[in-house]
Amino acid sequence: MHSPNVIPQRMGHQAFMDIKLGQMLSLSYNRHKTILLPAPYDTNCQTYDVTGVETAHKLRADCLSSCAYNMWFRCRNCTTYSRILWRLDSLPGERNPNICKFGEHYFSDSGIVELPGPYYFDDYCQRLCPVDCVQNYYSVAVVDREPGRSAWFMSGTGRVYIGLTHNQLPDQVTQHVEEMTFIDLLANIGGILGLWVGWSVLSVLTMFKGNK
């Protein structure tokens, strides 16, 4: 389960669930939303424009795909199947790119045999493409609802019933904020200057009284 404007990356077998025919499943989910800060902060995120007007890539997935595509073509003038090549229509060049006919080969930027090509490019592109500033993660709980009844009700139909509901718990939102904004900085400087001026006035008055 993922955000509608985000294509999931690096999905393994643990991201999928086996469902048998005749099951009646009840799924409840919660959303965990995280709002990050762009550079120069450590989170170094980027807000992608899904219209493709404000940013070069509509999604981070497009940036990853384009990066891997260019890396493969630079090394072998072909591309290979990868977990980060999801949308071929977003890639530069031909709509039907030349797929490499060999298996897991080893490349590096200097051409030295080091790491498996797809995984090396994957890690390289993950660092090159900033993450989206708004991250949505979903936790899903799956319950096989009344397995005895579902076997009787759905047997022989070749169907699966899935009910999706929001968990009773509220969604969680975590927002990263600046430790000190520009206005806070000015306020602190103003407070320090005001304190300094106040002490200066007291010192001058004390000096005049001493001279008298």
How would you sum up this structure, described in words?
The protein is α/β, with parallel strands linked by helices and 212 residues long. It folds into two domains: 13-175, no CATH class; 181-212. 32% of the residues lie in helices and 17% in strands. It contains four helices and six strands; from the N terminus they run βαββαβαββα. The strands form two sheets. Strands 1, 4, 5 and 6 form a four-stranded mixed beta sheet that branches. Strand 2 (106-107) and strand 3 form a beta hairpin. The protein is flat and about 100 Å long. The relative contact order is 0.22. Mean pLDDT is 71; it is low at 103-115. Belongs to the amiloride-sensitive sodium channel (TC 1.A.6) family.
Topology:
Blueprint: E1 24-35, H1 60-76, E2 106-107, E3 115-116, H2 117-128, E4 134-144, H3 147-154, E5 161-166, E6 172-175, H4 182-211
Distance between the termini: 81 Å
Topology, number of strands: 6
On the 0-100 scale, what is the average pLDDT? 71
Number of helices: 4
* Rg, Cα atoms, Å: 28 Å
Query: What best-fitting shape do the alpha-carbon axes yield?
Result: flat
Poorly predicted residue ranges: 103-115
Given helix and strand content, the structural type is alpha/beta
Number of domains: 2
